[in-house]
Design a protein that fits this description.
Layout lengths: L11 E7 L11 E5 L22 H4 L64 E5 L3 E2 L9 E5 L2 E5 L11 E5 L4 E4 L3 E2 L9 E5 L2 E5 L2 E2 L2 E2 L3 E5 L4 E4 L2 E2 L10 E5 L2 E8 L4 E9 L9 E5 L14 E5 L2 E5 L11 E5 L4 E5 L11 E5 L2 E8 L4 E9 L4 E3 L3 E3 L9 E5 L2 E8 L4 E9 L19
Amino acid sequence: MRAPLDMDDTDTLVLQAVTDASVPGVMASVAAMSLDGSGAQAQKSGGRSSAHKRVSRGAAESASPRPHTSAPHPPLPAHAGGSHTPRRADSGPSSTRSSTNCLVAKVAAGAPAACAEPRAPTPAMYWSRQHARGAVPPAVRSQTMTAVGSKLYMFGGWNNSVCYNDVYVLDTETMFWSRLATSGDDVPPCRAHTATAVGDRLFVFGGGDGTQYFSDLFVLDTRTCVWTRAKVAGAAPAPRRTHTCFHYGGHVYLFGGGDGHRALNDLWRVAAEPDAGSGEFRWEEVETAGGRPFPRGYHTSTLVGNQVVVFGGSDGAECFGDTSLLNLDTLEWSHVAIDPPLTRLAHSATLVGMYLFVVCGHDGSDYSNQVLMLKLDTLKWETRAIYGLPPAARGYHACALHDGRLFLHGGYNGQEVFGDLFALELSSYSYLPQVPEFVIGCHR
């Protein structure tokens, strides 16, 4: 299975000529495989406060609930249950959206506009498009969105022609966007980078623009709005895009990505605090046991306790559906077989209790808007009924979790770059087994 090819991108993962008339849409006859997808950083969930309950739900309780997702298990192959043809999420009350696992009930002809959006019982998960005010960011893909407190910091991305270095902040309590006025060192426009939260700071590494690939480390202090280009001593990771980063034990870890010539599977880490004397940061390459995953970008790396879960991605020729675990205390890899092996790249993966929520992305054949849930103790895929109107199928989006809501912004469907903002309200599902400690795969 081949991964999606982006005809408008110049950053290549593996330099190769591909011509395959049988592959639809974005897969058709291009010269290079791009690496533009960056997994969003996973955040732990909290309960929703009553202040965020949807006011209009009470009046709709008497209506028959109409879920998007009713299948007991995600079908395989992913396109077997229906077309993934992308449609705009705001295309009107009479539009229908279909994916393998997400169906929107048709609105009866002549029904009032207020009935166009199916309502849900209070405990159910619910998609809604957010009409935030303020300095709304442009339509972008391959950006990052990272939660710091109750605010989401969006940085970078591009619209297939222009790459950005702006920082936009969404206040999730007021749903108000602002463009952050920053000072300090100049940060170049970039995409397919990572932005990792360490307290009130964001560690931004790598990415690129056009044919440029970066290996710089920048730190944004969200309290002072000051950018600092880190002074790095010794060896450092090679320039790259579409890698993943996460914070554990006082270090920011980096895994994989692509350098324009090949996919990578190296593991690095840097202490989150500089040397007290020199003020320098020092990278070190981490040696591991157990055999590393195949080289890849477009994947996600999600921190779960003292382990990181690496799922999906692509090496430029194949879309992966494998799952690998790295114990960060023993530095040993293990590789688990999950049935069915669902393939994804340019998706997002967010930890919610004992579940990994995998949202949207590309399955190697088409873009998806599915919400798949990997139960980590059993390592089984599950689905739940989800109400409301979902986002259109896409990848290269950004997701961040705060206070029982999973926010999704932007992305790309092979034809259009999106600038919309959606929220998946987890409702009672935000309390999905909040087990303080559990062992991944303990109940297989």
